[in-house]
Amino acid sequence: MIRPSFLQAGDRVGVVAMASKVSYPSLEEGLRILREDWELEVVEGHTLYSHYNQFAGTDEERRQDLQHMLDDPSVRAIFSARGGYGSSKIIDTLRFQKFKKSPKWLVGFSDITAVHCHLHRLGFESLHATMPKLFGQEGAENALESLRKALWGEQLAYDVPAHPYNRNGKAAATVVGGNLCLLAHLLGSRSEIDTRGKILFIEDVEEYYYNLDRMMVQLKRARKLDQLAGIVVGQFTDLKDNESASFGKNHFEIISDYVQEFDYPVAFDFPVGHVADNRAMVVGRHALLEVTSENTRLCFDS
């Protein structure tokens, strides 16, 4: 995998809204951190100020804004201001010829999973991590520091407590993944992720339990689960049950059901997803996953 150059103070970075519209005042603390704390030169995209229905501009406006950042060799990283919905609507119309000559970090999560998967197919590392709209939220200190470490090329290693649904084991492989809904949504597209021999991480928010089950069925039928090196289950927040007959299982039980026949390590309750402590995950980088009765450790290669 091709790794973009790490950042240093004074570097130029872009911030755009690739998907849903964003309130500019909600970005002020994130932009301040980038400029003052991290000492970066920030280029603000037009989509931070525009909107079209629920989106941060029309598909073409959002495509042009992101394309400009991809093409500009002076921009060393691109931050998605927020997620929402819409990045997959523009991914097939983006051009990556200039990006390939001058690779840069792409940072975001949730809906931005579509872009991460596409970049992985092109052979580039990217950063599934917190976004400027969320930089200042309470409890985000570890998430923000993990993103800074990833961008500055410092060691990334996470230790989290053991979970009752874990399956012990060790795996050394490339890390891929992101939002479960997007991973299922991308199946059959040019951005579909290849999970064979890899460590897959998943997370999601505000889904019904039955739909979570359906997405796991989809991944299993598409053979995205049977040849993994390991799986890291992040945070599944604000999940909903049916108003009438309960689905009858929580997300730990649902996911466990679909991986129980395999023998790779399984780590639950990892700090990645729609939570304040959303640790940076380098999509496309080799890492060591160790799941024991004491804890889970994920250590990315330098």
Overall form: globular
Profile the largest sheet. 7 strands, mixed
Strand line-up across the major sheet: 6-13-12-7-8-9-10
Q: State the name of the first-level CATH class of the largest domain.
A: Alpha Beta
Strand content: 15-25%
Q: What CATH architecture of the largest domain do you see?
A: 3-Layer(bba) Sandwich
Q: How would you describe this structure to a colleague?
A:
The structure is a single chain. This protein has 302 residues and is α/β, with parallel strands linked by helices. It has two domains: 12-152, Murein tetrapeptidase LD-carboxypeptidase, N-terminal domain (Rossmann fold); 157-300, 3-Layer(bba) Sandwich (Glucose Oxidase, domain 1), CATH 3.50.30. The chain is 26% helix and 23% strand. It has eight helices and 13 strands. The chain has helices at 28-37, 59-71, 97-101, 113-122, 141-152, 180-185, 209-221, 251-259, and strands at residues 12-16, 41-44, 75-80, 105-108, 126-128, 157-161, 169-179, 199-205, 230-237, 266-267, 281-283, 286-291, 295-300. The strands form two sheets. It has a seven-stranded mixed β-sheet. A six-stranded mixed β-sheet has the order 2-1-3-4-5-11, with helices on both faces. Strand 9 (230-237), helix 8 (251-259) and strand 10 form a beta-alpha-beta unit. Helix 7 (209-221) packs parallel to helix 8. The longest helix has 13 residues, at 59-71. The radius of gyration is 18 Å and the shape is globular.
